[in-house]
Amino acid sequence: MTPLLELSNVRAGYGHSLVLQDISMSLHEGEIVCLLGANGAGKTTTTRVISGLLAAGSGEVRFAGNNIAAVPAHRRVDLGICLAPEGRQVFPNFTVHQNLLIGSYSKTARQRRAEKFEQVYGLFPRLAERRAQKAGLMSGGEQQMLAIGRALMGCPRVLILDEPSLGLAPKIIIDVYETVAAIAKLGLSILFVEQNVQAALMIAHRGYVIANGRIAASGTTAELQSTSLVQEAFLGTKTGTGRAPPGPARLSAH
Ligand code: ATP
Predict the structure, then answer these.
(1) Cβ contacts of 45 within 8 Å, gap of 6 or more
(2) At what angle are helices 140-153 and 170-184 packed, to 10 degrees?
(3) Is residue 44 lining ligand 1, measured as CB closer than 6 Å?
(4) How many CB atoms lie within 10 A of CB 93?
(5) Is 90 helix (H, G, I), strand (E, B) or coil?
(6) Is residue 51 within 8 Å of 76, Cβ to Cβ?
(7) Could you report the per-residue pLDDT of 233-253, keeping only the tens digit for each?
(8) Which of 250, 252, 226, 253 is nearest to 238 (CA)?
(9) Alpha-carbon distance 227 to 243, whole Å?
(10) Which residue has its alpha carbon closest to ligand 1 atom 1?
(11) Distance CA 27, CA 25 (A)
């Protein structure tokens, strides 16, 4: 089956600095896929290439079977590629409702605005309660919910979440990820970026590990948990000695 989103041998960077060396990954309809990596590994850069904020120097980004290299970022939102960026980036002086409204500027989203407001307020009752409050006065967890809600207002087929757990308390991280799992049940495909592997593996079906701009490993959630790479680099345990189950390195090397 053709993936909904596919990156093939993507190279990209900033000026003369090449960050993504050769990224290939895919996301199928209805899948939840995580992209794991340490600080500076290239996770956010990958989300920028997918959402069209940064052009790939070479390689292909395909959406629903079509090469979208020439499609600008705002048109990608129209296609259904919606990003909740790292650090939330809500508009602090706008109300919750106004922030959500900003997420629904595309043609498709404008037509479905009332329906999407109902969906987002249903998923996030806290946002409904606080709809008239300035976003800057919301807690970190609430602002994360708002950033996800704003992306949902764009009517995504692919929802991209860049480090939704960043800076949040463990209890709030669980709340956020429970809501992401509920969103996935609506039939969306979700690609999310994380450094917090335990949070990521709670809900992902599959994942990739990125290191120094290259895909270092990939596999199902169970495969990722059992590899020494993930255990040592992220979980702070060693193969066969820690919380994650022991087992051979079953990741497919790239
Ligand atoms: P983090 O979790 O810390 O955000 P990341 O995996 O998302 O890390 P990126 O933000 O993609 O990493 O950064 C990858 C590399 O690209 C880093 O070396 C970073 O310094 C560099 N980089 C990121 N943004 C820019 C930019 N706008 N201009 C130049 N270099 C950049």
Answers:
(1) 12, 13, 19, 20, 54, 213
(2) 20
(3) yes
(4) 10
(5) coil
(6) yes
(7) 665 555 443 333 332 223 333
(8) 226
(9) 12
(10) 39
(11) 7
* Ligand 1 pocket mutation, candidates 10, 39, 45, 195, criterion most atoms within 8 A of CB: 45
The distance from CA 206 to its chain's CA centroid, rounded to whole angstroms, is 13
- pTM comes to 0.88
How far is 179 from 120, CA to CA, in rounded Å? 11
Q: CA dihedral in degrees (62, 157, 84, 147; nearest 10)?
A: 170
- Average pLDDT for runs of 10 along the chain of length 254: 94 94 95 91 95 94 94 93 88 96 91 95 94 94 94 95 87 88 92 85 91 92 80 57 32 36
Handedness of CA 71, 92, 158, 122 (dihedral sign): negative
- As a whole number of Å, the CA-based R_g of the chain is 18
What pLDDT is recorded for position 249?
28
Burial of 254 (0-12, 13-18, 19+ CB in 10 A): middle
How many residues belong to the chain? Answer: 254
Give the tokens for residue 169.
Answer: 């308390």
Atom 18 of ligand 1: nearest residue by CA position: 40
User: CA-to-CA distance for 231 and 234, rounded, in angstroms?
Assistant: 6
Q: Name which residue sits closest to atom 25 of ligand 1, judged by CA.
A: 14
Instruction: Identify residue 7 by its one-letter amino acid code.
Output: L
Rounded CA separation 5/80 (Å): 11
3-class SS letters over 178-220: HHHHHHHCCCCEEEEEECCHHHHHHHCCEEEEEECCEEEEEEE
